[in-house]
Amino acid sequence: MHFLPAITATLVVLLLVMYSEVFGAGMAAAISTYTYHSRSERDFGNIADVWITQMGWDVGTYMVKEFWPDLRRKHHESPPQN
Hints:
This protein is mostly helical. It has one domain (4-75). Helix 1 crosses helix 2. The longest helix is centred in the first third of the chain and has 33 residues, at 4-36. It has helices spanning 4-36, 44-75. It contains two helices and no strands.
């Protein structure tokens, strides 16, 4: 059980990183909604839409960054030579 503190520390750091990412995206969505949108569009529904869209873009770009080497390798794979 000597590995338990390392796993616990890793999970705590991961949760803190995820918390700050989600909270930061929510704050950015609220600020941008109240700054750039007209008064009639300044409600929680619009903030939630902006927040969800921003999180979706973040997830998509993180996925591309994570798997880009594999995708590139697969796409540029040369055909077998006979």
